[in-house]
Specification:
Blueprint lengths: L10 H11 L1 E8 L2 E8 L1 E2 L5 E7 L13 E13 L16 E16 L2 H16 L13 H8 L2 E16 L6 H12 L3 H13 L1
Antiparallel strand pairs: 1-2, 1-5, 3-4, 4-7, 5-6, 6-7
Helix pairs in contact: 4-5
Length: about 200
């Protein structure tokens, strides 16, 4: 991912993007070409590994060997920026449309797991993570043991050893202040996606 210095975020912020996204696109280079799958993820406390699972019927994982590298992509904000949002265009008409977004990518080496015990732990981890703030909470153990066992047989686990993480927050930092503020104010009154970006522009200062 190309990251000019104005749009760079530190490692802590990059991991925050991953955690906020909760799910991302995994891209692998296979003999049949690039293939992707969208999955929820669990990041280990030390951020050394990311865990997920995919349907066993999904061919995405079948050509992967332990140690192969994948790219995980996470996006938490995204909106089109029209030059009409730039007051400076009246003095300098040399402007073009662009896109504001907040994203992160993780390069990682994979290991595929088919052990039912490992898969059972992973399913509980991912469920507990996303149920944590819900009321009432749903638990894997709310289902019968035979049902859970049958579902586990239909998936494979993916363990990703993190090689590198990069984050980017492109939020009109490269524009004059009057343009930045205009984009923010227009987005703040716009669509849900635009309001999401506006909130991050406020945080960015």
């Amino acid at each position: 991912m190309y990251v000019p210095s104005k749009h760079a975020v530190d490692e802590e912020a990059a991991w925050s993007i991953v955690r906020e996204a909760g799910a991302g696109m995994l891209v692998a280079d296979t003999p049949e070409g690039l293939k992707s799958v969208f999955v929820p993820v669990v990041v280990s406390d030390d951020r050394a590994t990311i865990l997920t699972h995919v349907a066993k019927a999904n061919s995405w994982w079948r050509s992967l060997k332990d140690g192969d590298e994948v790219l995980a992509l996470f996006l938490v904000a995204s909106a089109y920026v029209s030059p009409s949002n730039y007051p400076s265009r009246f003095e300098n008409p040399g402007v073009v449309p662009t896109w504001n977004y907040v994203a992160a990518e993780v390069r990682a080496k994979v290991r595929v797991h088919d052990d039912p015990e490992w898969l059972g732990r992973q399913v509980r981890l991912v469920t507990d993570q996303f149920e944590a703030e819900r009321s009432p909470k749903w638990s894997v153990d709310d289902s019968s043991v035979p049902y859970v066992a049958a579902q586990v047989k239909a998936i494979v686990g993916i363990e990703m050893e993190v090689v590198a993480i990069t984050g980017k927050a492109k939020l009109s930092q490269n524009r004059p202040g009057v343009d930045h503020d205009s984009v923010h104010d227009n987005f703040a009154a716009g669509t849900p996606s635009e309001r999401n970006v506006a909130a991050r522009m406020s945080d960015d200062g």
